[in-house]
Design brief:
With 467 residues, the chain is mostly helical. 59% of the residues lie in helices and 4% in strands. The chain has three domains: 100 residues, Fumarase C, Chain B, domain 1 (Orthogonal Bundle); 249 residues, Fumarase C, Chain A, domain 2 (Up-down Bundle), CATH 1.20.200.10; 71 residues, Fumarase/aspartase (C-terminal domain) (Ribonucleotide Reductase Protein R1, domain 1, Orthogonal Bundle), CATH 1.10.40.30. The strands form three sheets. It has a two-stranded antiparallel sheet with strand order 1-2. The protein has a two-stranded parallel sheet with strand order 3-4. InterPro entries: Arg_succ_lyase_C, Argininosuccinate_lyase, Fumarase/histidase_N, Fumarate_lyase_CS, Fumarate_lyase_fam, Fumarate_lyase_N, L-Aspartase-like.
Length: 467
């Protein structure tokens, strides 16, 4: 017997085959089979409380749903031609298993509130997984920073050598971005953890179901307050996709720094063979493709965000079929982030830092700012000190020598405040250690950063599926 469509009663002609293929989303949203089944079991229990199902019928439905979940888990579920989506497929299979009693499950429920609920259930678990990956990345960076506190390298602005900093300070500059990304997940989790089930197609549920109890059963913190808003709301996905885009940008910027540092021109780091590829033509090549792929994928994450925003911008109220595309980009963004986070974790963990190359890249002209600070400590205004330090650099360049090779007499011809102890400026460790304020690159300041991040890593924010 041909399976009836959930909406087919008023139609006299069959759906066009091309439209049927376009309309079907089962190959995409089957990924939410478990969420759909869990939501249906909770809804079944509420229907029992409303006396719309007997205890016996409810038990039969829940047993059937358990069997369907097992079939999905064991890859035995057979998708049929009329299975438009995961909701249709599960309900069709349920009626095959237990007969017409299965058709009672949809009482008062629409796919409009059902799919929104399923997506929120799925995204909750996804957010937890992403948080754990981000914390793993931060942990790897923190561990390396502790181990390599003594490594010093040039810090750059405008890709020009600027001031000496610790490698750990550089690494933590990216770790703080990823901590911020993980912290933002808490807010996304909060706005996701709102239950729309009970909104029906758009007008609500006519059977006085206890939505608060239903929400508690499914682990939602609260419920939506307007049924029309609820079924058309995709803000939680938009927030997730924007977050994905921003996190992708942070990953891309880290990848770009490491790509530059791994070139022969810099040679500050070496990417492990396990996270590199070669050339099909040039045998000597070792390419940091792991990082280049991360940099490229960041662009597609932004594309997912802009795609949904363009879909949402002109939709009329409540549910529209345009929203069927939301799940594909949600899943894709998650998959890409999981992939790149796993790769960046492995890349950071296994890369080798060439400490000698880092230190050899330092030059005394990077201490020109320290010359200005030297004068400031002797009562010169910073603006004048900056000007005089610039004159020191210009004088050295004119003579084609290093600024540290200028004589005290030459320095005093620029500013009489220079004394014999100016020689103390030409020390990279001393330069670095002067930045003792919170957030600086001194040893104590970096250790303070590490302690904060380690405490953060021990905290728990987003509940896991089993918590």
């Amino acid at each position: 017997m041909e399976t009836q469509k959930l909406w087919g009663g008023r139609f006299t002609n069959p759906i066009n085959s091309a439209l049927e293929q376009l309309n079907a989303s089962i190959q995409i949203d089957k990924r939410m089979y478990s969420e759909d089944i869990n939501g249906s079991k909770a809804y079944c229990r509420i229907l029992i409380l409303c006396k719309l199902l007997s205890e016996e019928e409810g038990n039969l439905i829940c047993e059937g749903l358990d069997q369907i979940e097992t079939e999905w888990q064991e890859n035995r579920f057979v998708i049929k031609d009329n299975d438009e989506d995961i909701h249709t497929a599960n309900e069709r299979r349920l009626t095959e298993l237990i007969g017409d009693i299965g058709a009672k499950l949809h009482t008062g429920r629409s796919r409009n509130d059902q799919v929104n609920t399923d997506m929120r259930l799925w995204l909750r678990s996804a957010l937890s997984a992403l948080e754990q990956l981000l914390k793993e990345l931060v942990k790897i960076m923190v561990d390396r920073s502790y181990e390599e506190l003594g490594t010093i390298l040039p810090g750059y602005t405008h890709l020009q050598r600027a001031q000496p900093v610790r490698w750990s300070h550089f690494l933590l500059s990216h770790a703080w971005n990823f901590k911020s990304d993980a912290d933002k997940l808490r807010n996304i989790y909060k706005i996701t953890n709102v239950m729309p089930l009970g909104s029906g197609a758009l007008a609500g549920n006519p059977f006085c179901i206890d939505r608060i109890k239903l929400a508690q059963d499914l682990g939602f913190e609260t419920i939506t307050q307007n049924s029309m808003q609820a079924v058309g709301d995709r803000d939680f996905i938009a927030e997730f996709l924007f977050w994905s885009s921003l996190t992708g940008i942070h990953l891309s910027r880290l990848a770009e720094d490491l790509i530059i540092f791994s070139t022969k021109e810099f040679n500050f780091i070496e990417i492990s063979d396990s996270f590199s590829t070669g050339s099909s033509l040039m045998p000597q090549k070792k390419n940091a493709d792991s990082l280049e792929l991360i940099r490229g994928i960041a662009g597609s994450l932004f594309g997912h965000c802009s795609s949904l925003m363009m879909t949402l911008k002109a939709l009329p109220s409540t549910y529209n079929k345009d929203l069927q595309n939301d799940k594909e980009i949600m899943f894709s963004a998650f998959d890409k982030l999981v992939s790149v986070l796993n790769v960046i974790c492995g890349t950071i963990k296994t890369l080798k830092v060439n400490s000698a190359k880092c230190r050899n890249a330092l030059s005394f002209d990077m201490l020109a700012t320290d010359l200005a600070y030297y004068l400031v400590r002797r009562g010169v205004s910073f603006r004048n000190a900056h000007h005089d330090a610039g004159k020191v650099v210009a004088t050295a360049e004119k003579r084609n020598i290093c600024i540290s090779d200028l004589t005290l007499k030459e320095l005093q011809s620029i500013n009489e405040k220079f004394q014999v102890d100016v020689e103390d400026v030409w020390n990279y460790e001393t330069s670095i250690e002067q930045y003792q304020t919170i957030g600086g690159t001194s040893r104590n300041s970096v250790i303070a950063q590490l302690d904060i991040l380690r405490n953060w890593l021990s905290e728990h924010y987003i509940p896991t599926k089993n918590s």
